[in-house]
């Protein structure tokens, strides 16, 4: 490959930067199609959950992910999501009560991971799930940085590592079946259906038993809304569910980029020019590298 000069380098770098700036806008627009309340989602009621992890086993069975073993070869249930465990139960142990919480992809209405992926390996489908195409993935991990829920996981043990995450069993939904985790739940803590119907169900439960639940459905508005809702009798912060505000992550990142990138592109040369001017006055020009 022939060497490139400085002008060619700057041209290539500019094209790369332009592509990076355009990708979030394209992805964001694609994610906003259709009525979010018609998307397929799930409702998890922590007050009904017994922490049996049947959902974890069903997810593993359906998706064919291997059982995780410790150093001695014994079964080892991980404490957080991994490339082989796409959903699991965690527990909050308070002074007076405990509560379980299910970890999985939230299938955001306007997902940050889709916006951050430069090769469109992640897609917000028309019926709601955020799917993943391993054939497109280049393992850059931008989706990991863009997801506020820390869901996409890297295949650290693989020679050519990629990303893995819950897809809401999109392949099952295509056949009219529900997500494997929801259909196996023995207590009804996990149900699936259209997002609008699930939200109505969740708010109805709160209205019917206000002393049982925190008076809010988590996922209704967080980061632009999610397709996975939570009900709980302990504060959501105790379950590791943060309040991200109502703005979608792509909108926040785009606004930040629109402010920061022009500042760098315009301010950077001005600062360098000022430094060069000062260096000349101070007699530093002989050591200046440009």
Structure description:
This protein is α+β, with helices and mostly antiparallel strands and 290 residues long. It has a single domain (26-249), classed as Alpha-Beta Plaits (2-Layer Sandwich), CATH 3.30.70. It is 35% helix and 13% strand. It has 8 helices and 9 strands. The protein has a 3-stranded mixed sheet. The protein has a two-stranded antiparallel sheet with strand order 2-3. Helix 1 packs antiparallel against helix 8 (249-281). The chain is globular. The chain starts with 5 loop residues before the first helix and ends in a 9-residue tail after the last helix. Mean pLDDT is 83; it is low at 4-32, 255-265 and 284-290.
Please report which band the strand proportion falls in: under 5%, 5-15%, 15-25%, 25-35%, 35-45% or over 45%: 5-15%
**What is the C-alpha radius of gyration, as a whole number of Å?**
23 Å
**Main beta sheet strand tally, sense and closure:** 3 strands, mixed
The number of helical segments is 8
Which parts are unreliable, with pLDDT below 50 for 5 consecutive residues or more? 4-32, 255-265, 284-290
- Strand arrangement in the largest pleated sheet: 8-1-9
Query: Please, how many domains?
Result: 1
Enter the CATH topology name. Alpha-Beta Plaits
Mean pLDDT reading: 83
Which architecture per CATH? 2-Layer Sandwich
Helical content (DSSP H or I, runs of 4+):
25-40%
């Amino acid at each position: 490959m022939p060497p490139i000069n400085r002008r060619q380098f700057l041209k290539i770098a500019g094209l790369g930067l332009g592509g990076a700036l355009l990708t979030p806008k394209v992805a964001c627009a694609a994610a906003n199609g259709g009525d979010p309340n018609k998307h397929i989602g799930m409702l998890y009621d922590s007050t009904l959950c017994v922490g049996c992890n049947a959902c974890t086993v069903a997810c593993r069975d359906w998706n064919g992910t291997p059982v995780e073993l410790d150093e001695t070869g014994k079964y080892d249930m991980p404490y957080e999501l991994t490339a082989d465990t796409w959903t699991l139960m965690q527990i909050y142990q308070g002074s007076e009560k405990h509560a379980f919480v299910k970890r999985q992809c939230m299938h955001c209405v306007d997902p940050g991971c889709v916006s951050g992926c430069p090769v469109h390996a992640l897609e917000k489908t028309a019926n709601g799930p955020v799917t993943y195409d391993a054939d497109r993935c280049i393992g850059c991990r931008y989706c990991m940085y863009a997801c506020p829920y820390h869901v996409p996981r890297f295949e650290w043990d693989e020679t050519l590592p990629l990303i893995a995450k819950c897809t809401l069993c999109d392949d099952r939904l295509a056949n009219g079946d529900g997500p494997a985790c929801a259909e196996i739940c023995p207590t009804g803590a996990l149900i699936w259906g259209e997002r609008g119907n699930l939200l109505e169900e969740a708010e109805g439960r709160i209205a019917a038993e206000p002393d049982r639940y925190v008076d809010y459905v988590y996922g209704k508005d967080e980061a632009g809304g999610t397709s996975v809702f939570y009900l709980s009798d302990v504060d959501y912060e105790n379950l590791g569910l943060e309040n991200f505000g109502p703005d979608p992550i792509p909108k926040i990142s785009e606004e930040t980029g629109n402010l920061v990138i022009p500042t760098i592109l315009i301010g950077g040369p001005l600062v360098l020019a000022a430094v060069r001017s000062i260096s000349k006055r101070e007699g530093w020009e002989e050591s200046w590298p440009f």
